[in-house]
Amino acid sequence: MRVLAAIKEVTDPAIPIHLFSEGPTLHREAVPGVINPFDEIALEEAIRLKEQGIAQEVMVVGAGPETWEGTLRTALAMGADRALLMRMDPGAQPLEVARGLAFCAREYACDLILMGRQGVDCDHGVTAPMTAGMLGWPQATFVSRIEFDQDRVTVMRSVEGGQERLQLSLPAVISVDLGLNTPRYASLPNIMKARAKPVEVLSQPRSQGVSWKIAAFLPPPARPAGRQVASVEELVEQLDRAGVLP
Amino acid sequence: MKVLVIASDRLGAPSAATARAVTAGMQLGTVDLLAAGHASKDKGAAGRLLAGVEKVIHVTHADEFPPSTENLASLIARLAPGYRWILAVHDGFGADLIPRVGGLLATSPVTQVSAITDPVTLIRPVHAGQAMVRVVLERFPALLTIRPTAFPPAPMSSSPAPVMELECVQAVPSGRHEGFVSISSQRPDLSQAAIIVVGGQGLESSGSFAAVETLADRLGAAVGATRGAVDAGLASSDLQIGQTGRIVAPDLYIGLGVSGAIQHLAGIKDAKVIVAINHDPDAPLHAVADFSLVADLFDAAAHMGQILSKGIDIINLKHGTVR
Ligand SMILES: Cc1cc2nc3c(=O)[nH]c(=O)nc-3n(C[C@H](O)[C@H](O)[C@H](O)COP(=O)(O)OP(=O)(O)OC[C@H]3O[C@@H](n4cnc5c(N)ncnc54)[C@H](O)[C@@H]3O)c2cc1C
Ligand SMILES: Nc1ncnc2c1ncn2[C@@H]1O[C@H](COP(=O)(O)O)[C@@H](O)[C@H]1O
User: Fold this and answer.
1) How far does residue A61's CA lie from ligand 2's centre (Å)?
2) B2-168: which CATH topology?
3) A137 CB contacts (<8 Å, ≥6 apart)?
4) Which residue's CA is the nearest one to ligand 2's atom 23?
5) Model pTM greater than 0.90?
6) Hey, which CATH number is domain B195-319, 3.30.470.20, 1.10.510.10, 3.40.50.1220, 3.40.50.300?
7) pLDDT for A45-57, tens place per residue?
């Protein structure tokens, strides 16, 4: 089995955003790029499948600018066998990305695509089902457990009120949630080795135009300033006055 | 112009969030409601009574229950030419289904819509709500998911909308539904609760969530958690609130030992009143809270429970508040 793990580079989510000005582009301070946290989980799962002998090869693909090469090398250092960079604008819409991923899955005869449930920058959360729809493959999203039995895979999906158990046949697309695993760190020797591995560059399939345009980035709605209370008594009194206690 | 709203009901009972999606739909055009899951057992009857619904499309399925996302998406893609917008709630059902329809129709959906400025202009959060974007639709039918907390539920009407039946056939390779492990709780559901008590990693020193649960039960509240608490093994992951958990909008949110990380705040900004109880005065939750108390959470929660059980009138008397 060949597994394709989709890797998006995002700005480090641990560093808060400060919008400099409103407008059609996001004006903010420079923040280092990291692997989207969910994609780290997807890649970790792919590597474990290989370690368990269920997968034979782990490929990673990023659809972005050439500056993503470093991020893809980090994926190689974690344990991916092969890295592809599909050249694309950093602002490419999910439709373009999904077409790129579907193209790679077909071109390289992949049996399983593992992706994140959402990119933590744009928070779309659409690329996995879009890719599955384009390929006509079964899908499972928000997956927090994966079990293999021959060419059948059983997953648990975290949804409102509980967990859905789904059985999929391959090929399939799975998007992963937190809690599936804890991604490993790349070791120093592996980081050194990854430097020597190639990152293959592909060009983007022809664009199909945009579905929507971003007119402006805006600051989030402000909440009215709060107040500090000195005691539990004062807190309860204030809540009672606000009419929010039962 | 016509809007197709997908009822959020594949697995559980018809979700209350469906009524909120209908409100969003009515801000765009005239609404047809597609009922495919549990609600379809009653022929979409619950949806027929939502004011503003012109027609219910009741999806029947001979060989498969509940219908798979894959087959449902194909069916919706076939209905798509009759609509200018197709909309669902951003939950485990809608966020699974709508983008798959997007793959079939070659359109990128706009997800987590939090406001509709006009029928082609929408607002949605990015970067865990640290910025908003104004999005202008360019391709139709447009596919949307909404944040239910941002829209009020549509009222009930006395005249039921007509029903059209449509069969969903098994046409594409699909995941097979093998069961649903529901998390049964005596407490109210996070999406419905008027009061939510949330525990963070600050509870770790006690090794349990008891302080949160006791206060929640005193208040008739739901229990929520931060990822810190989930990772520490104090709470199950379905209680997680935030960018990658549930989005909540209670009248009252009380955070105990919660630092207020961006990713957590992303899920609570629609709460009417936010209370922070944290012994660190620099915890970011204090800065967004309507009422902040710098105190030990265990002392404060226990004390609050005591006051509530005695009746609040005692403090009102003491402080001379006129009611
Ligand atoms: C991609 C991504 C997605 C994420 N999604 C989410 C999400 O959906 N939801 C979420 O919550 N987090 C999420 N996180 C994690 C988030 O960044 C924070 O790590 C997390 O919210 C911290 O949880 P916490 O506030 O419980 O823990 P901490 O940050 O450790 O805070 C604990 C607080 O408790 C206080 N405290 C300790 N003891 C006491 C005491 N006795 N009395 C009073 N106060 C006390 C401390 O002062 C401290 O402020 C995500 C992170 C990433 C990278
Ligand atoms: N540009 C990209 N390159 C590679 N994978 C991507 C890209 N954008 C999104 N993905 C994948 O799709 C998932 C969901 O992203 P999104 O739909 O943008 O929230 C991510 O977690 C990645 O696995």
Assistant:
1) 10
2) Rossmann fold (3.40.50)
3) A113, A171, A172, A173, B173
4) A115
5) yes
6) 3.40.50.1220
7) 999 999 999 999 9
